[in-house]
Amino acid sequence: MRVDKGVDRCKEVPENLEHSMRAMLSTQAGGPECLRLREMETPEPRPGEIRIAVRAAGVNFPDTLIIRDMYQYRPERPFAPGGEVSGVVDSIGEGVKGLSVGDRVLGLPLFGGFATHVCVNGAMVHRIPDAMDFEEAAGFALTYGTGIYALKGRGDLKSGETLLVLGAAGGIGASAIELGKAMGASVIAAVSTDAKAEFCRQLGADEVLVYSRKMDQIARKAFSASIKAMVPDGVDVIYDAVGGDYAEPALRAIAWQGRYLVIGFPAGIPAIPLNLTLLKGCQIVGVFWGAHASREPEAHRREMEELMALYIEGKVRPRISERHALENAADALRRIDAREAKGKIVLTV
User: Crossing angle, helix 171-182 and helix 194-203, to 10 degrees?
Assistant: First the structure.
């Protein structure tokens, strides 16, 4: 992170004179410590939008990037992070159909979710089953949405194939384990601690692999060798939610014509020797779920319907490991930053 000398990165913004909603605002580019709880005027939904009275908000790795101006989108400040929420529809903009005030929903605002109210594009709002509580709903769409789009739409994972999940204990990784099993794959969960390995076993992983937190050359060779020992013919699909120095050794263990899914880079953007793609006849496939959801809304809606059905059948369920109050959002983001979380962290509003 670059910090300009002489600039107060936590400079506060003036409070509005009319107080009606609360939000955790990013006022300057910086880490979680720069968030400030403020009262502000409740937004009115524009045409095509729905306002949600937020009950819970999911906490995700992109939230740590967007407040540092390191994400694909850079909202105008002040803004609240938070790309997924759950709650109750309390106002509907012109032109929105299929939803009513009082409906229990989840929404995907991209940012703005760390607040008591947020306006969301109606296409990104979905009813939730009666059996799904607000905390589960707040931790559902981004992780499982990414997973189903990646594994089915980009990775073409088939029953009987082998799936390797890097960073398998986090929200993104945990959902990939469940979806992989639901699709009939054999799942290997790769994690950094024994405690995370046990968590993945409880999720249904067939095999677990504990890798080193410091990936020097020896550790990289050992990591690749461990994967090959489990699957001598190579892994069919790799779900990489880690990046960094873990990517190349995993790619070296991919099967002929395997698919390597690029999900995220909490360990850094990897440098991949492209000769490996030739030798393996494999594909490296980017997975940008947010862009997919906005560019292909009908496909996104079908995926969400399929996910809701899997939830009702009991095949997928968010594991909420931590709950933080809205005003403690900085602590929740620090946990994500440190890669300490298992399952999902949510804010309760």
Answer: 40
- Strand runs (DSSP E) across 93-200, as ranges? 104-107, 117-121, 125-127, 162-166, 186-191
Of 58, 1, 61, the closest CA to residue 29 belongs to: 1
Provide the token pair at 144: 């499982």
38/80 Cα distance (integer angstroms): 10
By the 10 Å C-beta count (0-12 exposed, 13-18 middle, 19+ buried), 274 is classed as exposed
pLDDT tens by residue, 136-183: 999 999 999 999 999 999 999 999 999 999 999 999 999 999 999 999
Residue 162 and residue 237 in contact, taking contact as beta carbons nearer than 8 Å: yes
Alpha helices by DSSP H, listed for the chain, are 61-66, 134-138, 141-148, 171-182, 194-203, 217-230, 247-251, 275-280, 289-295, 297-312, 329-337
If we measure between CA atoms, which residue out of 56, 153, 72 comes closest to residue 114?
Answer: 56
